[in-house]
Specification:
The protein is an alpha+beta fold. Helix content is about 25%, strand content about 20%. The protein folds into three domains: about 80 residues, OB fold (Dihydrolipoamide Acetyltransferase, E2P); about 50 residues, E3-binding domain (Dihydrolipoamide Transferase, Irregular), CATH 4.10.320; about 200 residues, Chloramphenicol acetyltransferase-like domain (Chloramphenicol Acetyltransferase).
């Protein structure tokens, strides 16, 4: 019996998707619920699971094609066996006749460099089973994916696994046997694209790489926000001494009790919510000629991934504990980087927090995540001399930025909101007591 594999029903807000990678080829055996292909939308990567056990008979649509809901991607023969296993196993085939036999045992011959752990083509494993970013990294560094420990879902290799493998690799390791320049063949000598290789003198190379669907969507939304909103940014600075002291005092007990580290983000989420309650216009949005006030607090937390910036939503964050917020943020970050985050995790939100400080940013002007009306930017914590009670003291300081839609938010409200966030962080006990 032949079964058609179709593009799953795409979410209502998604018109089409790009088929970025096939994990199976014609003749390959598949198991029920095994991932056959990856579809990239402008928000997430969707998996196409096999509905039954069988063998891939035909692939109808190649990688790189734009598809819509219901299109036939491939055909699977239910219950069939792959060609290699339909008869006797390959290892059990009859040996060749003496006249066809190799004159010397192959096992005693030294392996050529191309079959070492790092190969020109990556590995005997089907590279199509890797995500695009992982596949590119493996191919560029000529690595064998089978030799890299995988930590992703279902044993999948992630980019972090490859990067960690490269960092641990001895600096003296060489993917090919050493040869003098005179003995190098022209292709080997001209490999200017090899990792770490310097381009030839005077070379002006260029590469044209199409944007991913997510990057296109990010670009579109950022331009729309700039074009449709009257954006303005206000700054302040916050002394994080009290937050750091509180974390240092309870971090071990917190982690033991809740199984998650006590980070900074939960403090900023809580401080933002308390400030939003005082200035509800910051939590509102524009709907035509109306202002839509949200009486709930769905806080977006920006997460950087290989594919671009994503903003998963911590829903009803005002009703959640520090531990729950930290767990949800950690889970969202992991899912976003693995490519397993769902559209429902990214939809909605009334206010967003982004942390450029993790990359070393000292100050920036974040862009509002429309249709929201404001976004809080965190930055690098840096020790600076400050005047405290008439005395100079070294304090851990962070610049805060709030970018807001000036159409509905006045400067007075934006500045007071930022001051309220600052006060909550400098005296976190007030947040816990609700004063």
């Amino acid at each position: 019996m032949t079964t058609e594999i179709r593009v799953p029903q795409l979410p209502e807000s998604v018109a089409d998707a790009t088929l970025v990678a096939w994990h199976k080829q014609p003749g390959d055996a598949v198991r029920r619920d095994e991932n056959l292909a990856d579809l990239e939308t402008d928000k997430v990567v969707l998996e196409v699971p096999a509905p039954l056990n069988g063998v891939v008979r035909e692939i109808r649509i190649p990688s790189g094609t734009t598809v819509t809901s219901g299109e036939v991607l491939a055909l699977i023969d239910e219950g069939a066996q792959p060609a290699a296993s339909a008869g006797a196993p390959a290892a059990a085939k009859a040996p060749a006749s003496p006249s066809q036999a190799s004159p010397a045992p192959q096992a005693s011959a030294p392996k050529p460099a191309s079959t070492a752990k790092e190969t020109d083509n990556g590995s005997a494993r089907d590279l199509g089973k890797l995500s695009p970013s992982v596949r590119r990294l493996v191919e560029e560094n000529r690595l064998d994916p089978d030799s890299i420990p995988a930590s992703g879902k279902d044993g999948r290799l992630t980019k972090a696994d490859v990067v960690e493998f490269l960092e641990k690799r001895p600096a003296t390791a060489s993917p090919e046997p050493t040869a003098s320049p005179a003995t190098l063949s022209p292709p080997a000598a001209a490999r200017a694209d090899a990792p770490g290789a310097k381009p030839a003198s005077g070379a002006r190379a260029q590469q044209r790489v199409p944007m991913t669907r997510l990057r296109q969507r990010i670009a579109q939304r950022l331009v729309e926000a700039q074009a449709t909103q009257a954006l303005l940014t206000s700054f302040n600075e916050v002394d994080l001494t009290a937050v750091q002291d509180l974390r240092a005092r309870y971090k071990d007990r917190f982690e033991k009790e809740h199984g998650i580290k006590l980070g900074f983000m939960a403090f900023f989420v809580k401080a933002s919510i308390e400030a939003l309650k005082k200035f509800p216009i910051i939590n509102a949005s524009v709907d035509g000629t109306d202002i839509l006030y949200h009486e709930y607090y769905d806080i977006g937390v920006a997460v950087s991934t290989d594919r671009g910036l994503m903003v998963p939503i911590v829903r009803d964050a005002d009703a959640k504990s520090f531990a729950t917020i930290e767990k949800e943020i950690a889970q969202f970050a992991r899912k976003a980087r693995e490519g397993s985050i769902g559209i429902e995790d990214l939809t909605g939100g009334t206010f967003t927090i982004t942390n450029g400080g993790v990359f070393g940013s000292l100050m920036s002007t974040p862009i509002v995540n429309a249709p929201q009306s404001a976004i809080l930017g965190m930055h690098k914590t840096q020790e600076r001399p400050m005047v405290v009670n008439g005395q100079i003291a070294i304090r851990p300081m962070m610049y805060l930025a709030v970018t807001y839609d000036h159409r509905i938010i006045d400067g007075r409200e934006a500045v007071q909101f930022l001051v309220a966030v600052k006060e909550g962080l400098e005296d976190p006990g007030r947040m816990l007591l609700g004063i």
